[in-house]
């Protein structure tokens, strides 16, 4: 038996706020409506219109707030590609271009004894990474925009890159947590 495809409206992202209006997560409209219907959340912003049923119109939330406090999960500080890109704000640390097509560059190349750790890796566009090749930035006459660091174990709410510029109604809640 094949499941019916979700409508586009049901898959729209909804920002979930904690009871204190701090961003907590992102869910789909369908989940947000269930939380509201069960009395676990309230709609804060309605920016997507309505779902029309036989007996009523259900507003589609853009932002919801939970009626109870949730302790945000503590994130592990694992070194991952996405973690490095997030730390560097999806920006090449050599030329400054903001790009989603990035590579990881070892500042001191691994074949020369450089370790695979937060303070030795940075985001680089393919062009800069190729230009630097197996050399240090000094040898390649390239300067880092920002020295790499290990982010704190709890870096707060993580906003996936595809949503960073997307939904204007979210901005006032996201800007308050920075």
**Tally of helical segments:** 4
Strand proportion, as a percent range, falls in 15-25%
Task: Tell me about the largest β-sheet.
Answer: 4 strands, mixed
Instruction: Compute the CA-based radius of gyration.
Output: 21 Å
String of helices and strands: EEHEEHEEHH
Structural class: alpha+beta
Low-confidence stretches: 1-5
Number of strand segments: 6
Question: Mean pLDDT, rounded to whole units?
Answer: 84
Overall spatial form: elongated
What is the percent of helical residues? 10-25%
Question: Domains counted in the coordinates: how many?
Answer: 2
Description:
This protein is of the alpha+beta class and 178 residues long. The protein has 2 domains: 9-73 and 165-175, no CATH class; 81-132, DNA Binding (I), subunit A, CATH 1.10.30.50. Helices cover 16% and strands 23% of the residues. It has 4 helices and 6 strands. The strands form 2 sheets. It has a 4-stranded mixed β-sheet, covered by helices on one side. It starts with 12 loop residues before the first strand and ends with a helix.
């Amino acid at each position: 038996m094949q499941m019916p495809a979700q409508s586009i409206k049901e898959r729209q992202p909804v920002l979930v706020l904690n009871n204190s209006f701090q961003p907590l997560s992102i869910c789909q409209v369908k989940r947000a409506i269930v939380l509201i219907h069960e009395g676990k959340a309230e709609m804060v912003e309605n920016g997507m219109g309505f779902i029309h049923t036989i007996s009523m119109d259900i507003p589609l939330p853009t932002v919801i707030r939970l009626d109870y406090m949730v302790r945000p999960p503590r994130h592990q500080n694992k070194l991952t590609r996405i973690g490095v890109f997030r730390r560097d704000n999806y920006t090449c640390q050599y030329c400054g271009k903001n790009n989603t097509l990035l590579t990881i560059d070892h500042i001191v190349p691994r074949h020369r004894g450089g370790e695979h750790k937060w303070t030795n890796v940075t985001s680089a566009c393919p062009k800069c990474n190729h230009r630097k090749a197996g050399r240090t930035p000094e040898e390649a006459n390239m300067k880092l925009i920002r020295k790499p660091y290990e982010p704190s174990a709890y870096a707060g709410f993580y906003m996936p890159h595809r949503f960073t510029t997307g939904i204007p109604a979210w901005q006032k809640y996201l800007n308050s947590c920075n």
